[in-house]
């Protein structure tokens, strides 16, 4: 009897909907995963609402491992949802998530209408997390193709993906971190990103030297 394919939940980022993850969904399915979309309101609703819904979704897919791949804000929400969840097991891959705070988000709060654009996720994006000490292994894929307006809004450092600085994606406690030639939104359609994400979900590290 064949084992069921491992489950993966996809979380989109700020100002997006689930369909933005369609290409990544297809590629991870081709890698042998059973893929699930998770939609949430990134601006109008408080992050705590999405976090609690995500926990319920994870538990509903138990008892087998339930992996998560989160883009940008979605990666932060994934970590917060799983920080104190011992069961079920699984790994997390973050794609360009500003885990230690977003300079672009902080810069946007100083522009007229910035608070409205960031909505209820403003504080979470601006300040991020201190470290990761949850039970899951977490891998980060950062980009350095500088296509985007983030660097014009706030300080994202010299190396960035157009929206998030590479240094903003580093966080104590990550299992692995890799940098690819892709932009922030380009991660969602990148074959290299999908391949590296699938590799980490299976092995607990990326198919690249530790960066």
Automatic annotation (TrEMBL):
Keywords: Hydrolase. One of its GO terms (molecular function) is hydrolase activity. Pfam families: Abhydrolase_6. The keyword Hydrolase applies. It comes from the Bacteria. The keyword Iron-sulfur does not apply. Residues 8-133 form the AB hydrolase-1 domain. This is Alpha/beta fold hydrolase. It comes from Luteibacter pinisoli.
């Amino acid at each position: 009897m064949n084992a069921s394919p491992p489950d993966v939940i996809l979380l989109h980022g700020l100002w997006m909907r689930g369909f933005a993850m369609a290409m990544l969904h297809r590629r991870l399915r081709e890698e042998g995963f059973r893929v699930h979309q998770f939609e949430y309101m990134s601006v109008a609703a408080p992050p705590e609402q999405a976090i609690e819904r995500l926990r319920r979704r994870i538990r509903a897919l138990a008892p087998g491992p339930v992996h998560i791949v989160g883009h940008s804000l979605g990666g932060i929400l994934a970590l917060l949802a799983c920080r104190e969840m011992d069961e079920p097991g699984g790994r997390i891959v973050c794609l360009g998530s500003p885990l230690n705070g977003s300079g672009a988000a902080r810069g946007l709060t100083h522009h007229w209408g910035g608070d409205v654009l960031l909505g209820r996720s403003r504080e979470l994006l601006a300040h991020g997390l201190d470290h990761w000490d949850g039970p899951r292994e977490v891998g980060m894929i950062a980009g350095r193709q500088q296509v985007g307006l983030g660097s014009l809004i706030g300080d994202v450092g010299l190396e960035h993906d157009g929206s998030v600085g590479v240094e903003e994606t580093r966080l104590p406690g990550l299992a692995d971190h890799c940098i690819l030639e892709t932009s922030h939104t380009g991660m969602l359609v990148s074959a290299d990103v999908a391949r590296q994400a699938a590799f980490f979900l299976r092995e607990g590290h990326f198919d690249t030297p530790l960066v």
